[in-house]
Every structure is written in C-alpha cells, then in structure tokens.
C-alpha cells in the first residue's frame, strides 16, 4: 500500500464532514472517490494532502505517518494534489507556473534565482507542457488560457514536483463531454507512462468506470462501499445514495 487512510474523522464545528473513513491504495492503482455533493470528497483530499489535520485517525504515505504534516512537507515526500477549483498563478506565464513547481523539487536547491533558468528544470517543464499540448502556450499568461488548458496546467504544476502519488480533485469539472473524454485519456496515459499512483475525485461516472481499478463511495462523510467499478455499479447502497441523496 502506498497510501493508508485509517479511521479518519474530520469535523467542522457541529458538521461531521468525514466519519471513520478507512481505505488503502496500492502502488500503481487508479483509485477513485465518488459520492454526492457535500459527501466529504474534497475534505478527504485536504486531509490526505496536509491542508487539514484530521480530528481522529491516521494517514500513512509510503509507511510514514503524515496526518497533520504541513502540505509542503507532504509534497516533498512525493504527494501532489490539484484543487477542485483551478489554482494557478494567473499573472505569470504558463512556463513560469510550472518552473516554480519544478524548482521546488530540483536537486541541490540553492537560491531560487540561480535555479530559475537551469536547463534540467526547463527540460522537465517543456516535456510536461508537451505531454498536455501546452508547449505552444508557454509564454502566455495563465489567465489567458482556456478553462480546459488551465486545468491541464494545474496538473502539469502538480506533476512538476515529481510526485509518486497524484491527487486530482475533479480534473474534468467544467469540461464538455468531448473535452472530458480527451482529458481522461490523457491523464490515464501520463499516469501509466510515469508509473504513478492516482487518487481521483470525479463526478462523471463514465470517467470513473473507465479509468479506475478501485472505487470508494462516500455519503454524508461515511464510506458506504468500496470495490471494483463493476461491483460499485451494481451495489444497491450506492444506487440508493445516488438516486436519493444528491443531484448527481
Ligand atoms: N473549510 C470548511 N469549513 C466548514 N465546512 C466545510 C469546509 N469544507 C467543507 N465543509 C463542509 O463539509 C462537507 C463536505 O464538503 P466537501 O467539500 O468535502 O464535499 P465534496 O464531496 O467535495 O462535495 P462536492 O461534490 O460538492 O465537491 C460539506 O457540508 C461542506 O459544506
Ligand atoms: Mg469537492
């Protein structure tokens, strides 16, 4: 197991956003978390990535207890996350967005200014932008990219930190069905090529069923099911939660 979430609970005041959630992700798997709006999916990612400390429970990444560690520390251990709402620096170029992330993981990091134009950093950056079809947009300000391009840029930023575990929170949110298909195929390809483990939150069930090795279902902060896509599709509790519990 590369990631073990063990009995994690997270409260916001009186609201139990996560209640005793446990699951494990094997190295190389695509593991998806689904559930109706407000089920606790993003909260779970925020706990795993160090943004929130859990109230109870443990999170182990490659055997190390990371619950409550600050996000930068968790990132340095090899875990990177994108946000549900696109989170890039709008006023700097596409290249510089990815460079900033890449230099945070460059070896022998000295003064940032000395790293800024390092050829090894730029090689990584250009390869990433090429993989996501953004190489020709390198000099553009991030704010001038299309919505879909900004979502890709955010994935590039996460990958530039050389993670072993990548967390994507609804990477296809706001995309058309055609863009969603393309994005899913691309994410799958990049994840496979790099031998990454992927933990994914995704609304689009066709995406989830097509890409995942395993799926966990959250409902009102509790895990109500976990299994292969096929088992999940036919699980009566899951069907009930989706039909009765949300607007999905
Ligand atoms: N920082 C916060 N402070 C207070 N309440 C929060 C906070 N973050 C999330 N919540 C609440 O916790 C619950 C779970 O929210 P979360 O964003 O994790 O759900 P989600 O499954 O990601 O939903 P969606 O599908 O809409 O993205 C919701 O009731 C939400 O309002
Ligand atoms: Mg969410």
Describe this structure in words.
The model has no long low-confidence stretch (mean pLDDT 90). The protein has helices at residues 41-48, 71-76, 94-105, 112-115, 119-131, 147-160, 177-193, 205-211, 229-233, 236-245; strands spanning 3-12, 15-25, 30-34, 56-61, 64-65, 79-81, 165-169, 197-201, 214-219, 222-227. By secondary structure, it is an alpha/beta fold. It is globular. It folds into two domains: 1-78 and 163-248, Rossmann fold (3-Layer(aba) Sandwich); 87-157, no CATH class. The longest helix has 17 residues, at 177-193. The strands form two sheets. Strands 6-7-8-3-9-10 form a six-stranded mixed beta sheet, sandwiched between helices. It has a four-stranded antiparallel beta sheet with strand order 2-1-4-5, with helices on one face. It binds adenosine-5'-triphosphate and magnesium ion. Residues 12, 15, 17, 35, 37-43, 84 line the site of adenosine-5'-triphosphate.
């Amino acid at each position: 197991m590369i990631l073990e979430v063990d009995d994690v609970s997270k409260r916001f005041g009186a609201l139990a956003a996560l209640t005793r959630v446990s699951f494990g992700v094997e190295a190389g798997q695509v593991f998806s978390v689904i559930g109706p709006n407000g089920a606790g999916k993003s909260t779970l990612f925020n706990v795993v990535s160090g943004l929130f400390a859990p109230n109870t429970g443990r999170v182990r990444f490659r055997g190390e207890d990371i619950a409550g560690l600050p996000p930068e520390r968790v990132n340095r251990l090899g875990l990177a996350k994108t946000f549900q709402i696109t989170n890039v620096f709008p006023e700097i170029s596409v290249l510089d967005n990815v460079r900033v992330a890449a230099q945070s993981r460059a070896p022998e990091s000295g003064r940032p200014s000395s790293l800024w134009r390092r050829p090894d950093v730029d090689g990584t950056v250009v390869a990433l932008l090429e993989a996501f079809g953004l190489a020709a947009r390198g000099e553009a300000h991030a704010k001038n990219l299309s919505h879909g391009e900004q979502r890709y840029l955010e994935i590039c930023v996460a990958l530039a930190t050389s993670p072993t575990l990548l967390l994507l929170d609804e990477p296809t949110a706001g995309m058309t069905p055609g863009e969603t298909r393309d994005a899913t195929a691309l994410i799958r390809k990049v994840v496979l090529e790099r031998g990454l483990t992927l933990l994914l939150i995704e609304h689009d069930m066709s995406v989830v069923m097509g890409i995942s090795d395993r799926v966990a279902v959250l409902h009102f902060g509790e895990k109500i099911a976990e299994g292969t896509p096929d088992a999940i599709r036919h699980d009566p509790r899951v069907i009930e939660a989706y039909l009765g519990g949300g607007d999905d």
